[in-house]
């Protein structure tokens, strides 16, 4: 079971994405299927500016809570920004690349989680 730290980080990232009008935010609990992280958060934006703004919002929200990214990739091109925070990995896509890479299918063994499940307890 993912710990409270992971849940808090995922919840903060979710809310930050939501504030920037992210589309189709999905939280996958991958703890039982991978050692990469406890959660993948996947979202999309309509254009490069929105995708970058979403990544900035995640960085700001998690940074205020004391969490720093281990690595961020793809920010400049903003087709697919990957933000690795260790316990969670945030994937922010433009619409076209989200459909192409289809992480939800690749990680279908993970369990889709709701924001309510993240924020309880």
Report on the architecture of this protein:
Helix 1 (4-19) runs antiparallel to helix 2 (48-64). The chain is an alpha+beta fold. Helix content is 40%, strand content 26%. It contains five helices and six strands; from the N terminus they run H-E-E-H-E-E-E-H-H-E-H. It has a single domain (4-114), classed as Beta Polymerase, domain 2.
Layout of strands and helices, then pairs:
Blueprint (H helix, E strand, L loop, with lengths): L3 H16 L3 E7 L9 E7 L2 H17 L6 E3 L6 E5 L3 E7 H7 L1 H4 L4 E3 L1 H5 L2
Parallel strand pairs: 2-5
Antiparallel strand pairs: 1-2, 1-6, 3-4, 4-5
Order the strands across the largest sheet as they lie in space.
3-4-5-2-1-6
User: Count of helical segments?
Assistant: 5
Runs in which pLDDT lies below 50 for 5 or more consecutive residues are none
Q: What number of structural domains do the residues give?
A: 1
């Amino acid at each position: 079971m993912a710990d409270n730290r992971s849940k808090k980080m995922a919840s903060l990232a979710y809310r930050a994405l939501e504030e920037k009008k992210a589309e189709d935010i999905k939280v996958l609990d991958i703890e039982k299927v991978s050692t990469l992280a406890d959660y993948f958060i996947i979202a999309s934006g309509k254009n490069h500016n929105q995708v970058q703004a979403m990544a900035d919002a995640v960085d700001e929200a998690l940074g205020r809570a004391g969490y720093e990214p281990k690595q961020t990739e793809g920010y400049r091109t903003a087709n697919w920004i990957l933000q690795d925070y260790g316990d969670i990995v945030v994937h922010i896509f433009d619409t076209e690349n989200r459909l192409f890479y289809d992480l939800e299918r690749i990680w279908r063994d993970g369990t889709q989680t709701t924001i309510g499940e993240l924020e309880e307890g």
